[in-house]
Design goal:
mainly alpha; 80 residues; elongated
């Protein structure tokens, strides 16, 4: 009985995701869905890049300073 309920729930979830993807495609075609905006590094980030490279300042410390996650800091460091 639980297997049947699980299969029905999985099937319904697949249908929901399919409808969501269709809605996103329609919105993108209409120019209404652009996704999340990209975070740009602040102007003084180059100073922190030098500290990170030369003095081994931790990425966690840079992330705390700019109030972003570590992944964003790694992305900023990789782009330049």
């Amino acid at each position: 009985m639980l297997t049947i309920f699980g299969a029905i729930a999985e099937f319904e979830r697949d249908l929901m995701l399919q409808r969501q993807r269709e809605g996103i495609r329609i919105a993108q075609a209409a120019g209404k869905y652009k996704g999340r905006h990209e975070k740009k590094p602040p102007k003084d980030f180059d100073d922190y890049r030098k500290l990170w490279h030369d003095h081994n300042i931790k990425v966690s410390e840079i992330a705390r300073r700019f109030k972003v996650c570590r992944t964003t800091v790694y992305k900023w460091l990789r782009n330049k």
